[in-house]
Amino acid sequence: MEKPSIKPNNPNFSSGPCAKRPGWNIDVLKSTPIGRSHRHKVCKEKLNEVIVKSKKILQLPDGYHVGIMTGSNTGALEAALWSLLGCKGVDVLAWENFGKDWVIDILDQLKIKDVNSHVTDYGILPDLSKVNFKNDVVFTWNGTTAGVRIPNGDWIPEDREGLTICDATSGIFAMDIDYSKLDVITWSWQKVLGAEAAHGMIALSPRAIQRLETHVPSWPIPKLFRLASKKKLIKGIFEGGTINTPSMICVEDGLDALNWVESVGGTKELVNISNQNLKIVEDWIEKSDCFKFMCEDKNTRSSTSITVLIKDEWFKKFNEEDQRGVLKKLFSLLEKEGVANDINGYPKAPPSIRIWGGSTVQNSDMKALLPWIDWAYNSIKNNA
User: Fold this and answer.
1) Residues 77-111: tens digit of each pLDDT
2) Backbone angles phi, psi at 16, to 5 degrees
3) CATH code linked to domain 267-382
């Protein structure tokens, strides 16, 4: 097979941290108030600007509070679990690695007794009709390590008794989400926005705030997870204050990303870019004799964490260790050619290729990448 002649303009297809926005350069950080206290007015204004812009761009419902948290999305989600759970049973959904982490938190760390775990294999969404909304419900919107997403919020009732706590980090901004169905939403800047990592975001509905102000969990809550004090919401978190010291460089980069979203037309355009990236890969897969999606159901297939398996008989004859060895050679070859960085599947997932299709990845780069994957795979196979 002849080596392709066109390379992606940006070879970064990592699923986190993700590619920077088109046109990004280091000069966007020039206005960072470096060396200033995060409690100073100039810093708090920037922190609050992130909050205000995020709420506006996402068009969150009235009454939702948005705050900046420590520890990226993981810290934000665990702050919600530690602060809100305990007064009801819990239904938790998991079909990939991070969802399973929340299962571990709920069962092994918080030791909640009344738990229904809806766990499926990689690539398959649990049966949403079996979820008990008398309980609190914990789930990811998009499975970053399996390429499976929840298609919509129709399965969540308006009159639910429990809270819905959603890890939305690899779907938010790039997918249509009915936020009114979610009482807690967490994400980070490093995914669809392509900004720097280490900081998380949390949005709380009025129902979640009511829970914070009426329920005191039976377990200790670390300072970094505390959203309330003496049954009162810590309002400063949602007004530009932070629990611990933020990186103002990361904050500046997050602001740049949000400004970019506004400049291209908001989340509608970001959703279009990501959906088109998925369509490009779907067209490639349809013609391929070697590759298939991990998620076979088109309705639940992720447009951001696009995960691909190899179905070729030559590859399937190997055991898992040797399959991973073949993929390691493929990734190395693509990186050496300067066409793809970090498209390896998640280590705990089946041997796979994972291509980020989020909105900072240009459609032209996705189109340019795929022939190179064909070329690299055939080169390894023919030289085996």
Assistant:
1) 999 999 999 999 999 999 988 899 999 999 999 99
2) 145, 125
3) 3.90.1150.10
